[in-house]
Amino acid sequence: MSWANLATRAPKLHVNVFFERVLKHDHLARILLVEIPVRSISLRSCSFSDPDWIMRPTLTDLLPAYGHVLQELTLELNNDQEPLDDELLQLILSCKRLLLLEVWAFLSVTFMERLLQNRAERKCVLTTIKVRIYIAQQETSEEDRLLHDI
Questions:
Q1: Alpha-helix runs per DSSP H in 32-140
Q2: Gap between the Cα atoms of 60 and 90, Å rounded
Q3: Residue 141, SS3?
Q4: Is pLDDT of 97 > 70?
Q5: 16 - beta bridge partners?
Q6: Distance (Å, rounded) from C-alpha 16 to C-alpha 70?
Q7: What is the pTM of this model?
C-alpha cells in the first residue's frame, strides 16, 4: 500500500521521523516522500565531515513540503561552515502548524531576534522554542550580552 493510500484510509495518521547521522539531501528525499503525513521530524548528528554534504537543500527544498502538517522540528547541526539562519527562519515561517522547535546549531544572535519578532507578530505559531546557539569565536561576550538583552 502506498503512503498516499494509507494516509487517505487513515486520516488521523501522523508519522514521527527520527534520523540519527543524517544522510545527504538526495538520500533523505528518497525516504521522506511528500505523501507521508509527517507530524514530527528529528535530524540529529548532522555531520559535515564530507565536504560535499550540505544542509541547505534539506531546509529549502525537502522540509517545506511538510509545511501543512509538520508540528515538531528538531535539528542538531554542526554547520559552522554553512550559515543557515535565513533558510531556517524561512522554513519555520512556511510551517504553519509548527508548535515545537528544538535547534542545536551555529546560528547568529540576530536569528533569535528575528524568530522571536516573527513569533510576536504571529507569523508563526510556535509555543515551544529550545535553541542552543554555538559560536565559532573564542570571545563571546558581545553575543552573551545580546542574548541576555533578548
A1: 56-57, 85-94, 109-120
A2: 8
A3: helix
A4: yes
A5: 40
A6: 9
A7: 0.87
